[in-house]
Write a structure and sequence with these properties.
By secondary structure, this protein is an alpha+beta fold. The chain has 14 helices and 17 strands. It has a six-stranded mixed beta sheet with strand order 4-3-2-1-5-6. Strands 12-13-16-17 form a four-stranded antiparallel beta sheet, covered by helices on one side. The termini are far apart. The structure holds manganese (II) ion. Manganese (II) ion binds next to loops. The site of manganese (II) ion has 5 residues, from loops.
């Protein structure tokens, strides 16, 4: 063997040692608690969930949300099986060859401690999965819980994924089934005796309430994401391009261990403040305009959602101030109303009362609940929402006047506590005087 070859081989082995020793963001106790709670709620049958098949985009690999929630594992192409009768969990993992390991590193099949670390009964090569299913199929009335609703992504809720795929099917040449649909078809073809049931309502109930470990990560993310927006505010100036603000914010996220944005950053100036999901971020901003930034980072698979709107030149005009005050007072009243047991109409009633007390015209803005935040920035959410301790929710009232190029949205992510809520993103200023004071620190 040549010297070069030996060197490569040593390097390869060294890399393998580094990457195949699994490190987890969440504790084994936490992962076991989640799996046991899910098995408690279904009571019978097998639960089968699939990992993301691999990384085919230009960004970092991101595991499937539901799979990650229950395993903490970033193995691509793996399958999790939980047996609600025996209370045991198994992972079926693709076997990698030496070349794959050299390029990508190993997976939990290559880590002798993985079973222990993940709290699993066994880790099998994936080649055993079909036989495992065939054995289970031979039992009387085999119940199998799988995902009969779409998986959510980092930024799209299950319902949004369903909506987008319906839109995609409008053109019959785009009507490709999703991986989940394909898997269900395959179960029906080879295991027609399986009684397939949807696991997602059970998973969603669990994911809705955050554990102390998750809350700790969310608090950290709230601080980092708030710092990111502050940095963007300090970068803004007449003549700056919207993407310069994105760059400033992203640097803060990446420097602090986040893996990227929780959704495509929205940075709209002037007329773009009125486009709700504007994400081109390519316009040059001018003095006298507002800039609206909706941005949050991802940290340990958990997301954050913040929006701030501020004047490019550093001072709100009287007209901008008037609208800003309304949105701000509605947002603050919503936050005051948030506590366990509260529904959307309770928040609306409280907001109406508060605005009347302050003698402010609401301009049609009512307030209410927002959307839940978690593994997905539009996290799983029941139709009839009642706030509970441990929920994390983004509250985002807004007013848009396109004819005046005037759009204002103020958004914070809050944690519902025992008797109120904690604003996780409180470090970015939102009072008019605070914003103007922060912008005064800019030099140009
Ligand atoms: Mn939001």
């Amino acid at each position: 063997m040549g010297k070069k070859k030996v060197a490569y081989l040593t390097l390869g082995l060294l890399l393998l040692l580094i990457v195949s020793s699994l490190s987890l963001a969440y504790s084994r106790t936490e992962l076991e608690r989640r799996r046991q709670a899910l098995m408690d709620s279904v009571k019978e049958g097998l639960i089968i969930l699939f990992a993301s098949p691999g990384n085919f985009g230009s960004g970092h690999f991101r595991q499937d949300n539901d799979f990650y929630y229950l395993t903490g594992s970033e193995d691509a192409g793996a399958i999790l099986v939980m047996n609600a009768f025996t209370r045991e969990s198994f992972l079926f993992v693709p076997q990698k060859n030496d070349r794959e390991k050299m390029f990508e590193g190993g997976n939990s099949l290559d880590d002798p401690q993985a079973k222990e670390k993940l709290g699993l009964k066994a880790i099998y090569p994936i080649s055993y999965f079909e036989e495992f299913l065939a054995r289970y199929a031979a039992r009387p009335e085999p119940v199998v819980y799988v995902r009969l609703s779409p998986g959510d992504t980092i930024s799209e809720a299950r319902s949004e994924v369903a909506l987008f795929s319906a839109r995609q099917r409008r053109n019959p040449f785009n009507a490709l089934p999703s991986l989940d649909e394909f898997r269900v078809e395959r179960f029906r073809k080879y295991y027609p005796g399986f009684q397939l049931k949807d696991i997602t309502p059970y998973l969603d109930t669990l994911r809705m309430i955050k554990s102390p470990e998750e809350i700790e990560v969310l608090r950290r993310n709230g601080k980092i994401s708030a710092e990111a927006i502050k940095r963007a505010m300090l970068t803004s100036r007449p003549g700056a391009y919207e993407y310069e603000l994105e760059a400033a914010a992203m640097e803060v996220i990446l420097r602090n261990g986040g893996r990227g944005p929780a959704y495509p950053p929205i940075i709209g100036s002037g007329p773009n403040t009125c486009i709700l999901h504007y994400e081109k971020n390519s316009r040059q901003m001018k003095a006298g305009e507002l800039v609206l930034m909706d941005f949050g980072g991802e940290l340990e698979y958990l997301t954050m959602d913040i929006t701030r709107t501020w004047p490019v030149s550093g001072r709100f005009t009287e007209e901008q101030k008037k609208v800003y005050r309304v949105v701000l007072e509605v947002q603050k009243a919503c936050i005051e109303a948030f506590r366990p047991g509260v529904r959307a109409r309770d928040v609306q009633e409280y907001v109406a009362k508060k605005m009347k007390e302050k003698g402010l015209d609401t301009m049609g803005l009512k307030g209410g609940l927002g959307h839940l935040v978690g593994l997905c920035v539009h996290d799983v959410q029941p139709a009839e929402m009642v706030l509970k301790e441990g929920m994390v929710m983004a509250i985002e009232p807004a007013l848009y006047f396109p004819e005046k190029n005037l759009g204002i949205r103020i958004e914070d992510t809050v944690l519902i506590t025992k008797d109120g809520c904690e604003v996780l993103t409180a470090d970015v200023p939102k009072e008019i005087e605070e914003i103007e004071a922060l912008l005064d620190r800019r030099k140009f």
